[in-house]
Amino acid sequence: MPEHTVSSYDEELTAIAGRIAEMGGIAESAISNAVSALVTQDLELARETIQQDGRLDELWSEIEVKLVEIIARRQPLGADLREIMAAGRISNDLERVGDLAKNVAKRVIAIDSDLKSKQLAIGVEHITELALAQLKNVLDAYTSKDAEAARKVRDGDEEVDTMYTSLFRELLTYMMEDPRNITQCAHLLFCAKNIERIGDHATNIAENVYYMVTGERLSDNRPKVDETGVALM
């Protein structure tokens, strides 16, 4: 392949990686802002967070179109094909992370003044900090093509699940002790489940990064300890 062609191809891949990095930054900001809006009942911040999702959708669409063009023109194989396929899957996960953050922000608006106790929201803050750390670490692993860092993120999903299970039981206890807590705790459970799912998407990204770098799949025995048995939509 001529040198100028190789250079052009590298530039295309770098541009896609840059768009994924932008998606990651927006997704991280959206999660942080959505939960901050929840705790402070900042409706304006919640609305701004919902608006952020539009840019994520635009970037995701741009990446999808560009990847199809590259495959059609370059017909990549081996490591190049793995990198392209990983980029598509990672951008899809980040788009879903944005949707989950938007769900939390929408819930803030739905709650309005129903969140009587800010203390009850502390657990949601804690699981968010952990999920955000997972997301940041896996995006760093993607940028640096660090398979071992990606593996650590995948293994760390168990901690997110454990914290979610603990929070679920705590909020359920509050609901049983005082029926007046039911509405606000139900809202918080919805938000916590969305954050837990963000951790799952970080794990998906980790598995794709590992495969992109090594050409091998991580074991299907993914750590998963959500014991609540409840699906919140």
Any overview of this molecule?
The protein has 233 residues and is mostly helical. The chain has one domain: Methane Monooxygenase Hydroxylase, Chain G, domain 1, CATH 1.20.58. The protein is 82% helix and 0% strand. It has 7 helices and no strands. It has helices at residues 3-40, 43-74, 78-111, 122-144, 147-155, 157-177, 182-214. Helix 1 runs antiparallel to helix 2 (43-74), helix 4 (122-144) packs antiparallel against helix 5 and helix 4 runs parallel beside helix 7 (182-214). It starts with a helix and ends in a 19-residue tail after the last helix. The relative contact order is 0.14.
Task: Quickly describe the structure.
The protein has 233 residues and is mostly helical. The protein is built from seven helices and no strands.
Q: Layout of SSEs?
A:
Elements: H1 3-40, H2 43-74, H3 78-111, H4 122-144, H5 147-155, H6 157-177, H7 182-214
Helix pairs in contact: 1-2, 1-3, 1-4, 2-3, 3-7, 4-5, 4-6, 4-7, 5-7, 6-7
Domain unit count: 1
Total beta strands? 0
Element order: H for helix, E for strand: HHHHHHH
By CATH, the architecture is named Up-down Bundle
What is the C-alpha radius of gyration, as a whole number of Å? 19 Å
Can you tell me the CATH topology? Methane Monooxygenase Hydroxylase, Chain G, domain 1
CATH superfamily: Phosphate transport system protein phou homolog 2, domain 2
Tally of separate helices:
7
**CATH top-level class:** Mainly Alpha
**Biggest beta sheet attributes:** none
Helix/strand-derived class? mainly alpha
Strand coverage percent:
under 5%
The averaged pLDDT comes out at 89
Helix content: over 70%
The N- to C-terminal Cα distance equals: 50 Å
Low-confidence stretches: none
Overall shape: elongated
